Each structure stands twice: as structure tokens, then as C-alpha cells.
Amino acid sequence: MASITLKINNKNHTVEADPKMPLLWAIRELVGLTGTKYGCGVAQCGACTIHMNGLPVRSCSIPVSTAVNKEITTIEGLSENNSHPVQQAWIQEQVPQCGYCQSGQIMAATALLKRNANPSDKDIDAAMQGHICRCGTYPRIRKAIKAAAQIMSQKASTK
Amino acid sequence: MNTEINEHKIFKVSRRDFLKTTSMSMSGLLLGLQFSCTDKEKNLTGNPSAVFSPNVYININGNGDVFLIAHRSEMGTGIRTSLPLVMADELEADWSRVKVVQAVGDEKYGDQNTDGSYSLRMFYTPLRKAGATVRLMLEQAAAKEWNVDVSECKAQNHEVVHTSGKAFGFGYLAEKAAALPVPEESMIALKDAKDFKYITKQSSIVDLKDIVTGKAKFGLDSKLPNTKIAVIKRNPEAGAGLKSFAMEAAMKIPGVIKVFSMDAPGFPTNFNKPLGGVVVVAENTWAALKGREALEVEWLPGINADYNSLEYGNDMLKRAKTKGKVRRSSGNIDQALRKAKKIVEADYVVPHLAHAPMETPCALAHFHDNTCEVWAPVQDPQGTRKSLAAALNIDITAVTVNVTLLGGAFGRKSKPDFVVEAALISKEINAPVKIMWTREDDIQHGFYHFPSAQHVKVGIDENNNVSAWLHRSVFPSIGGTADPAAKEPSGGELSLGMIDLPYAIENISCETQQAKTKIRIGWLRSVSNIQHAFAVGCTLDEVAQARGVDPVQNILDMLGADRMIDASVLGPEFENYGEKLEDFPWNTGRLRNVIETVREKSNWGKSLPKGSGQGIAVHRSFLTYVACVVEVSVDENSKIKIIKVDYAVDCGVPVNPERITSQFEGGAAFAASLALKSEITVVKSAVQQSNFHNYQVARMADAPYETAVHIIDSAEKPTGVGEPPVPPFIPALCNAIFAATGKRVRKLPINLKEEVNL
Lengths: 159, 758
Known about the structure:
The complex is a heterodimer of chains A (159) and B (758). Chain A has helices at residues 23-31, 85-92, 102-115, 121-128, 138-158, and strands at residues 2-8, 11-17, 49-52, 55-58, 71-73. With 159 residues, chain A is an alpha+beta fold. Chain A has two domains: 2-77, Beta-grasp domain (Ubiquitin-like (UB roll)), CATH 3.10.20; 85-158, DNA polymerase, domain 1, CATH 1.10.150.120. The longest helix of chain A is centred in the last third of the chain and has 21 residues, at 138-158. The relative contact order of chain A is 0.15. By secondary structure, chain B is of the alpha+beta class. Chain B has three domains: 7-208, Aldehyde oxidase/xanthine dehydrogenase, molybdopterin binding domain (Aldehyde Oxidoreductase, domain 4); 220-303 and 361-436, 2-Layer Sandwich (Aldehyde Oxidoreductase, domain 4), CATH 3.30.365; 309-353 and 447-741, Aldehyde Oxidoreductase, domain 4, CATH 3.30.365.10. Chain B has 21 helices and 27 strands. Residues 1-40 of chain B have low confidence and may be disordered. The interface between A and B is large, with 62 and 67 residues.
């Protein structure tokens, strides 16, 4: 066991954990942020996706020790009140059905749009291929990513 | 499935009982409310502590807040929104002032088993009446206040307005209405459809914002102070026992608290009993998983130790080719086939499938002082409650089942085995426990869709009409999971796509062969409709080819003149999804209408490039009529791309069109998984797949690129939409692949590179 400090959503949290514990369980059970989900434990489904230093990673497959001194963002840190363009787009397109995988989908979409402001269908397929939605909201996820890109470009042009 | 509803029970429950149980969880909310404003001229609000709850579903307080009970489980269908919307509409409540409260498992709500796509079918009218009753009582209360006739008072948008223009808010009237007797049902007038504000209109789900911010609470997010995490190592063979285990290494893992064994149920296991095994309880999930890894366990073989799904499937296929037990028959099948000028004959094979909801089975349980409270993602809260009472040997009233959001279910979470596990472990260690199923646990210890083999033989006569239809279906019954005597599919299972065949054919024989259940079998989204619609839908396309007729026209030809199919035609084993045919007829005109609609909307027969094609299949399931056209392209590497799906849907009154559309979009993707990707195989009774790398499901690029849903505007009674999208999609896809490539698909999952000789 070790004392580990994690910077999550701009806030420091010190937890006692086995350094090999996957970051997912540290975030969910030790820090208490449950928006990040377990789906497979082996980086196959994307439900546990968070941002580490701005890049999307599978928190189920990263030991908590490697997250030290990194900027971690979870779904709870995306915005205070649904105001992130990706969240707005998800609401506009009414994407979720059961909703369980959507935190991971939203985090992946946000990371995609950060590096590619206007993704093509192929870009979207590639970025989202690691994310399973068993309810099958895929067409709406695609629409919402395109809608979010528009919202972001409108915001950028009015700045 | 039991689809009877006791309306008497719903409406006559005493208010005291309601307050005692249901509003317990709401009293906190009520106390916390503040008066934000008081409009004296209008008298919008009243006594803040007043609670008006004339039935178990609706509750209005003096502040005018309307609490509507969602008593069905939310697994992604939107039912937690759709049923409250129905009540709010009849009640004339302002939706923005409605709070939806999830019910605990309790018989007073009527049926809560969220399964079989019947929530709206069963509750649309009772809940409209519940809302209309409350509306009338509010109008009566206002009339009494004003000393006018109730006919001069009309509830609208959270107020009761008098013909003179004066108005009272619902909050003001709550206490006054509570003093009135509940009116007789004969006095209740339901709204005219033209006055609907929410029913048949667009709306968004109540949990939408919580989901996109990560605030929504699923089963796995439940927690109490001092909650321990448990995982179980289970015998790979369902129901079989434990020989021995060594726990020393596991106990050395920091955080592991206790290791102990749980009894196996034997086989058949039943639907609500834990599989048993070795339980590891720890301070957190990681420690529990490490502890489980460190266990050394020896298992006992059970009665199905030699079960091999491939051999079993081959045997079923062999027997599907021989005369079986007749389950529906008309005319003389042997003679008609002998006299036929052309024969279409094919076999169809579907493997075991797993539900794999994104949220694995999980539950939080706290057993203490001979009571048990659970928080769990369950489809059947009352069944869960009964199972817990039985397993813990306590009175049912000592069990509380709180229903969380379900992170997908598809039938898996209608079985409460995992909740019983949590409760038994909590009792053992005397602390709150959350049971955690890993994805491996979920894939390897599920309730699988039955493997099946089917043989279809169709005769076409000298006039180019279909004169004979022989369909043999072989699969182990779901009943065999609980009943060792079940050796053959039930009439109910055959009524899902086989013996409910609507086509006007003179000589029909539907037959089955015995197949013993060897592993836990359970219902998966649309159940035996999956394999039956696959076989029937693909066969129809082959018949079209043999007759030299367009596939759409062929289906219309075979359907014959519009009619209500007589029960005598369908035979004594036919079941109508638990409903009487008088109430929900098998109306071939409605099927014809969706076929003609999808033909037009999909631009059927349009010219497509080489390697592309359209396919059609149609199916009535769960009393909803669906026609589906799929457009695919297949490249030189046999890679299949689903370009477009068109569904035409007649589900009666389209109560929540936006969620109907989303169910069909999602249903197409779910069916694409079954058609293209998923297969469970079993060797020596052990499931060979373990996670999403080898139990594959459709990802974004595999799923349909676009799904268009054309909803028929109907005034018929509403019927379900959760399951009906699945059955016709698979044959429509296979038929599209044939149109694109000339290859027939007869085995799932589709593998165009494999030589299949069926």
C-alpha cells in the first residue's frame, strides 16, 4: 500500500492504495467519483475513458501509480452544468438510452474534437471504434460529434 | 408471462398505505421544499405539508409539485419517462413541475416485471385513468371552493380555471382535493387524442442531463458507509458443486477480509438461485479480484459435464431433418410437398448468445436485524423481493428492493440471482456488500440464448403459389433452466415467430424435436423470435426467387387478403403474448400496411452499384407490426457495410415517438451484433469466450450507418417497441447480402468466407 496523490478535475486527492490498483477503481471507490464506468476491465469497451494530460486513456488498464503528477479529467470535470459543447450536443441529439457507456463516449468525443475540430465519418469511426454501446446509440453519437464540432466552431468564431 | 392487471388493486389502495411506504422516500423531499412565491390573486399554492395522493402513482403537495411514480425499470427504453408523461398529460400537469420517483418493488403497483415489451401495453390505459381521476378531483375541489358546478371548471397546465377566468393552482387545491372521495371509475373521462400535450409528442428522457454529466446512478454506483466488495469464483459448469478450495494465498492479499464457500444449486439451477462457488470479500474491488485470482479451487463435475455446444448443435440439426412432434398443422403437408412443382429447402443454425449489458450484474445489499435492503439494477423488483425473502428465510415485508438505473439489461437482469448473492454475503459478514460481476463472470456464467437448428421446406404448386410450409424448430426450452421435465419448446416459445405464421398457405406443419437444457438458458431481447424470424424471413426470400417474384410482392402475395387471423387457424398451442386475440387481433392488414410503407420509404428496388443490395423482412412480435429493409454493400474481402436501414412500425398509438425511434435505431445495432459478431461456444460445459475481444459485439463501424424509422400514425392500443426491432433486421440483412452477392446466409454469425453447407 502507498499514499498516492491524484489531481482529478483540478483538485488533489490523497488515497491509500496498492500502486498496481487500476486508476478506475481508485477514482470510483477511493475518490468516490462514479461517473467513470467499469465495462470490461481490459481496455476493450471504453466505458472507463478519462483524460490524462488531455489524452483519452482507459482508466481500467492504467495503474494508479502512473497517474501521479498527471492532470486527470473525468466526466464530472468536463463542465459545471452540462455546458461543455459535447454535453450540449449529446442533449440536443438525445443520444443516451441506458446511459451507462456515455461517460466514456463523451470523454472520447471530447478528446477527438480537441485534436480534430472537424472530424470526418472515418475520423469518427477510428476515434470511437474502441467504445461499445450495447444499446446501439452509434448513429446519434456520430450526429452529436458533428453537432458539437459546429457548436465549438460557432463559439470560436464569436470570440 | 403474466399480463393480467388488477386495476381494482391500483385504485383502491388506501392512502394511509401509500403514505406509509411509497412517500417515505419522498417525505425528505417534501420537507426540504420552500415556498418560492405565492400568487395571491391566483392562489397557486396551499398548505406546504399537504399531500394529495389518491392513488399509488400520483402525489401532489401544497407547493404544487407533482410526484409521479415510475414503477417499471429503466434499462434504456425510456419507460421511466414515457409512463409518467402519460399520467402528466391526463393530469394536465406542467411537465417541468413533475418529479419522477422510482418505485421500490411492491405488489401494490401492479406488475413491475419490466420484460416482454409490455409496459405501455399494460399500463397506458390504467395510468391515463389514474391521471384523469386526479384531474377530476382537482376540478371538483375548485368547484367546491368557488361554489360552482364542476362542469365550469377545467384543469389546464397545472391550474384549474373557471369559465370566468379565475384560477387555482394545483398546489392550492392539493389539500382540498385530498378531502374528497375518490370518484367512481364511471365518472372518469379520458382526454380526446387531439388534446394530448405529451402523449404522441416529442420529449426527452428525464435522466438525460444526469447521464451526460456522470451523475446518473446505476447499480454499480450504489454505496453505503462501510460497504465491502465481493466477487465469486464459480464452477464453469452451471449448477455444479465445489470439491475443495485453499484460501491462504487469497487471505494474504491486503484488503481481503473473508473467503468462504456458497452452495451450488445443482442443475437445473432455477432462475433466481446463485450459482454458488467461492466468495472473496474485500475492502475494494481490486483487492477482491486479486484475492480471487489467488484462490486454488477444485470443482466437482455435474450432470452436464460433457456438454459441448458444437456437438449438441450438430445433433439438433440432424434431428431437424426428421419428422417431429406436430405443434401446428393444417391440410396434408406430405401430400402437398409430394405434389409441389418446386421445392425450397434450407436449414438454419443460430448459436448460444450472451446479453452482455454494458453494466455487468451487480447489487448492493445490507442485511441486518432480520431485514434486508438492496439497491440493484433489476428488471423484476417484485420477483427479486420474493427471491430474497425465500433465500434469507425472512418475511417479504422485511425486504426492500430499491431499483437503480439499469446499465442495459436485455433480459439478463430479469433474473435476480446476483442480488441474492449480495444478500447472502451481507448476512454472512454482517456488513453492507456490493457484489461485482466482472465482464468475464458475465460472459461465462450467464443465462444464454438457446442454440437452435431449424429445417424449412416449402412447396410451390403448378400455379406458382406456395402450397406447403414445413418448419421444424429444435432448441432447448428456457423452462429447462428450472424444470427438469422440460424437454421441448413450449407453445409460448413457438408463438414467437413459428406457429404464429400469418401466411395464407393451405398445408402447414410446424414441428419440434426434443432438446434437453444443459446450461442456464434465459430470454434475450425478442427471445425465440430471433431464430424463427431468421429462418422464416430468409426462406421467404428464397421462395420469391423460386417463384420469380419481387421479394416484397412475394410477401404480399403470401399474406393474402386483409383479415383477422382466426385462433383455430393458429392452433391450440398459439399464445398471443399473454393477450386475448379479441383484444389484440392478428391483423394482417396492419402487416401489409407496414410492408407497403417500407417499400415506399426505402425506395425499394432503386438502382444500386455492384456489390450492394437491399433486403426485406417483416415480423409481428410483441403485438407490434414491423417491416424492415436493409441496404448493404459487400466488398471483395467480404466486408459487410450496413448503409441504411428503414423500418416501418405500427405499434398502435405512438406514445413517445422519440423513444420509439431510438429503440429501433438501437435494436438494429443490437441485431447487427447477433447477425455479424456474437457467438458463445461451450466445451465440457465451460463457456469458451470471456470478454469483448472474443465475444464480439457491433461497434460504430459495424452498426448501421443510418436507421430511418417510419412510425404509422395509429389509434390502436399501444404495444411494445423494446424487442420488435430485433427479429426482422437479421433476415432483412441476410436477404440484402444475397441481393449484393448471390450468397445465401443460413448460419449466424454471418461469415461469408466460410463454406456453409446447409
